Amino acid sequence: QVQLVESGGGLVQPGGSLRLSCAASGFAFSRFAMRWYRQAPGKERDLVAFIASNEDSTNYADSVKGRFTISRDNAKNTVYLQMNSLKPEDTAVYYCNTVFLGRNNWGQGTQVTVSS
User: Fold this and answer.
1) Distance CA 66, CA 109 (A)
2) How far apart are CA 30 and CA 81, in angstroms?
3) Do residues 52 and 18 lie in contact, with contact meaning Cβ atoms separated by under 8 Å?
4) Three-class SS of residue 58?
5) b/e 32-48 (16+ beta carbons within 10 angstroms → b)
6) What is the pLDDT of residues 26-71, one digit of tens each?
7) Distance CA 39, CA 48 (A)
8) What is the pLDDT of residues 59-114, one digit of tens each?
9) Alpha-carbon distance 115 to 94, whole Å?
10) How far is CA 61 from CA 25, 76, 91, in A?
11) Number of C-alpha atoms within 13 angstroms, CB side, residue 2?
12) Nearest Cα to 9, choosing from 115, 113, 103, 108?
């Protein structure tokens, strides 16, 4: 059973930083690409960042390029999202995702609020 557990969210001032973590279990983590999505109130869930299984490929939404960095530790079955220079428009629930056996799998999400 795939399980994804996000942590690291919170309240931060504009310009601040947070690092999100997603602990994965129930599948061969090192063989699968991982993604971070986010969903703001009243909006659709959008892809934020992608990392390939062997870390040689990453992609980012235009809105976060240069500010966010996705990484993974295959020994710890964990994927991270380092978020710098945070803006109020980054406020959302952030979700970890993987596609396993053709199905999308999601964590419970972690709230990130950027406000002064």
Assistant:
1) 23
2) 17
3) no
4) strand
5) bbbbbbbeeeeeeeeeb
6) 999 999 999 999 999 999 999 999 999 987 899 999 999 999 999 9
7) 10
8) 999 999 999 999 999 999 999 999 999 999 999 999 999 999 999 999 999 999 99
9) 16
10) 26, 26, 15
11) 20
12) 113
What is the Cα–Cα distance from 66 to 26, expressed in whole angstroms? 32
Place of tokens 């971070």: 36
Q: Tokens 């428009």 label which residue?
A: 89
Tokens of 109: 């999400």
100, β-bridge pairs:
103
d(CA 71, CA 64): 15
What's at 70, amino acid-wise?
I
Strand residues in 15-57 grouped as ranges (E): 18-25, 34-39, 45-51
